[in-house]
Design goal:
This protein is α/β, with parallel strands linked by helices. It has a single domain (about 45-95, about 125-300), classed as Deoxyhypusine synthase (Deoxyhypusine Synthase), CATH 3.40.910.10. Helices cover about 45% and strands about 15% of the residues. The protein is built from 13 helices and eleven strands. It has a six-stranded parallel β-sheet, with helices on both faces. A three-stranded antiparallel β-sheet has the order 3-5-4. A two-stranded parallel ribbon has the order 6-8. Strand 9, helix 11 (about 230-240) and strand 10 (about 245-255) form a beta-alpha-beta unit. The radius of gyration is 20 Å and the shape is globular. It starts with 14 loop residues before the first helix and ends with a helix. The mean pLDDT is about 95.
Length: about 300
């Protein structure tokens, strides 16, 4: 029986002080957040472990992109699994701005003014489709026409971007592979397809990405993952880890509900039945918005 302790916050309270108190206050999601951080701490201290980071692309349209950049820059993870939208937003924001909006804006009016809305972020069309088309055309005109592993092509794209704010740039510098299983599903993917239509000797071999993952999985003594949001990013992470008996560590952040049976809503405990997370693994599902949760977690770890 552990007594519930009251929070004690004052003008000198740090992120570390606050999170340490979360573990003692006994209250709901705050306790889960603290437990998730402890799991990540143990994961980071393991000497022989491969660390996966998966996340959904919408987060890169926000200032949370800076958090992802920081963890990649500091080599806190070894493999990144995400969607094409991450490439889109990272590339576009390296050259153009996105802006504050509102969930309550009139979408018909936005369409009239050629403005996209992503939640409460707004994006002028020329700051998304146009700039991506221009920069991808410039990038692709300078590459070798051959068969590419997608992760190697994305390193080249990061080198081309050459911007300190870019996720792709720091992945290139640290040679951290970014795996995008559904790479055609987005603006960057469409530009790759368009380039192929005119250069049929240009090829993307997705099997080479999967071969890299197989080499990583079958040579890793332990694995752990921080998964933010669901969909293909989360599933590809746990899918590959089932081939080694499951993840040893897993922290999952989601806003999805469980009752509809979706993969995005599935808690980490469900993955145990599939062998995607080990029965003795340290794991936690934290329900909440990653734009609130992740800065606290990474801020504590750093």
């Amino acid at each position: 029986m552990i007594p519930v302790k009251d929070l004690n916050i004052n003008s000198k309270t740090t992120i570390k002080d606050l999170i340490d108190q979360y573990g003692k206050m006994g209250g709901f999601s705050s306790k889960k957040l603290e437990e998730g951080i402890r799991i990540l701490q143990k994961m980071q201290k393991e000497k022989e472990i491969t660390k996966f980071l998966s996340f959904t692309a919408d987060l890169i349209s926000t200032g949370l992109r800076g958090i992802f950049k920081e963890v990649i820059k500091n080599k806190m993870f070894d493999v990144i699994i995400t969607t094409t939208g991450t490439l889109d937003h990272d590339l576009a924001r390296s050259f153009k701005d996105y802006y504050h909006g509102s969930f309550d804006l009139d979408d018909k009016e936005l369409a009239k003014h050629h403005i996209y809305r992503l939640g409460n972020v707004i994006i002028p069309r020329e700051n998304y489709g146009k700039i991506i088309e221009e920069k991808m055309s410039e990038f692709l005109s300078g590459i070798e026409i051959k068969e590419w592993a997608p992760y190697e092509l994305l390193w080249e794209l990061g080198k081309f971007i050459n911007d300190d704010s870019s996720i792709l740039y720091h992945a290139y510098k640290n040679k951290i592979p970014i795996i995008v299983p559904g790479i055609m599903d987005g603006a960057v993917g469409s530009q790759l397809w368009s380039f192929w239509e005119m250069n049929k000797n240009f090829k993307l071999n997705l099997f080479l990405d999967e071969h890299l993952l197989s080499d990583i999985i079958f040579t890793s003594k332990k694995t752990g993952a921080l998964m933010i949001g669901g969909g293909i990013s989360k599933h590809h992470t746990i899918w590959w880890n089932q081939y080694r008996g499951g993840l040893d560590y897993a922290v999952y952040i989601t806003t999805a509900v469980e009752y509809d049976g979706s993969l995005s809503g599935a808690r980490t405990r469900e993955a145990i039945s599939w062998g995607k997370i080990k029965q003795k693994a340290k794991h936690i599902t934290i329900e909440g918005d990653a734009t609130i949760i992740l800065p606290l977690m990474i801020g504590y770890l750093l």
